[in-house]
Design brief:
By secondary structure, this protein is α+β, with helices and mostly antiparallel strands. It has helices at residues 2-17, 88-106; strands at 23-28, 33-41, 47-54, 69-71, 76-80. Strands 4-3-2-1-5 form a 5-stranded antiparallel β-sheet. A hairpin with a 5-residue loop joins strand 2 and strand 3 (47-54). Helix 1 packs antiparallel against helix 2. The radius of gyration is 16 Å and the shape is elongated.
């Protein structure tokens, strides 16, 4: 189970690395949505954003003065990315390869 989870995480990690420099919206589990430019991502899917803004500044006024932020991967609910940055065929191919490797490694 760990092998599958770790490989899936690496698939997402590789995908997010390709989005560095792009504008994204990260929705957190506490309902805060942060818009910004993806600066970096690590293997734990922790995210660093630059030039940030929040969607509901009335609810989170303390975030108005924040320009850059680090977001722990475990608190992310969703990442909204521009549709033009996603290649569905490439993602499906990578997912198929991952599933095939998992099937071979588990002997299924």
């Amino acid at each position: 189970h760990y092998y599958i989870t770790n490989n899936l995480r690496m698939l997402f990690y590789s995908f997010f690395k390709s989005l560095v420099g792009k504008d994204v919206i990260v929705e957190l589990k506490n309902d805060l949505s942060i818009c910004g430019t993806l600066h970096s991502v690590d293997q734990f899917l922790n995210i660093k954003l630059t030039d940030i803004s929040v969607s509901d500044s009335d609810k989170y006024p303390h975030m108005l003065s924040v320009k850059n932020c680090f977001i722990r991967g475990s608190v992310v609910r969703y990442c909204h990315i521009p549709a033009e940055e996603v290649d569905p065929a490439l993602l499906m191919d990578a997912t198929r390869k991952e599933a095939q490797q998992n099937k071979q490694s588990t002997g299924a």
